[in-house]
Structure formats: structure tokens, C-alpha cells
Amino acid sequence: MEQQSPKEIAIDVWEYKPWWCQPWSILLTGIALISGSWLLLHKIWLTAIASVPVIIWMSYFILLYPKLVQRNINLSQSEPK
């Protein structure tokens, strides 16, 4: 676990997002899109092509976005006023 300096503030980005932008809704939407592609097309290669942008989208918002927000907050806190 990372130790935080006294100036760093831990923030849960999901507390500030609406229900449709929570991790569970992002995962559910991504799974529904990928499953829907398979159910409609029944072609693995089309489903795989459709899955790539969906997985990138899910990865960005679930993994990368919270870290970027935290980093931005920490940088703004460390700037002299």
C-alpha cells in the first residue's frame, strides 16, 4: 500500500459520478454490448472486433480515469498558491 504524504488527499472519484457512470454500470454496459454483438451476429470475428473498443473504453474509465483524477488533485494541491 502506498503511503501518502500529508499534502496528498485520497479521493474516491466514484462518489462524485452519477449512477450511470459507476464501475458496475460500466461493466454491465460493456458486457451487454459484447454479448449483444454475439447474440445478434453469431460471428466470433465480428464480436472480437466490436469488443476491442468496448474493452478499451471500460479499461479507461475503470482503471485509468480514477488514477488520473487522483494525480491531478495531488498536483493541484502541491502547487504554490
TrEMBL record:
* Key words of the record: Membrane, Transmembrane, Transmembrane helix
The record's InterPro entries line, in alphabetical order, gives:
DUF6737
Q: Which positions fall inside the DUF6737 domain?
A: 12-68
Superkingdom of the source?
Bacteria
Check the record and name the Pfam families matching this protein. DUF6737
Claim: Nuclease is one of the keywords in the record: no
Enumerate the transmembrane spans.
20-38, 44-65
Could you tell me which PANTHER family the record lists for this protein? Answer: DUF6737 DOMAIN-CONTAINING PROTEIN, PROTEIN, PUTATIVE-RELATED
Q: What is this protein called?
A: DUF6737 domain-containing protein
Species, as recorded: Aliterella atlantica CENA595
